[in-house]
Amino acid sequence: MNGPYWLRLGDQSDYEAYFELHELLNELEDVDQAYGDKGIGQVTEWRDLGFETTEFRGNNYISLYVGEDDKPDPVRDLDDHERRQVEQTLDRGDRSAATEANTMKRTAQDQPAEWPVYSDEKRSRNPASRKRL
User: Which stretches does the entry tag as region Disordered (predicted)?
Assistant: First the structure.
């Protein structure tokens, strides 16, 4: 990864940075559940620097890409593995993608089960601490 993942949910949202894939997947899962029965919807089409779902389409699509550290300027699109993780997270029949990413991250770094503990340069799951641009 070159920088943080930048996410914007449609036209009415601000860009938010997520420094780890598991943070991004957790946020997508939380927002999807908060939207009620329809949720964000399943991914229907990948676009340059984002994707459309059954609920976010056309010019109101979801922007998602890896960008600069301090501003939402694109560096690269998501790779195939990252896209599969997003698709699995938004598939209401399979809510295990975020959990799988967390497990893989913990195992890879040999961190204790009670993580995540974020350092100052990483962001917490607290919405008040998210970087908005």
Answer: 67-133
| Cβ–Cβ under 8 Å, residues 20 and 10 | no
How many CB atoms are closer than 10 A to CB 50? Answer: 19
Q: Where are the domains of the chain?
A: 5-112
The model's confidence at residue 68, banded by pLDDT at 50, 70 and 90, is very high
> What is the phi/psi pair of residue 19, to 5°?
-85, -10
Query: From CA 118, how far away is CA 58, in angstroms rounded?
Result: 36
Strand, coil or helix: 31 = helix
pLDDT 10s digits, 103-116: 455 444 544 444 34
Q: Which of 113, 112, 96, 90 is nearest to 28 (CA)?
A: 90
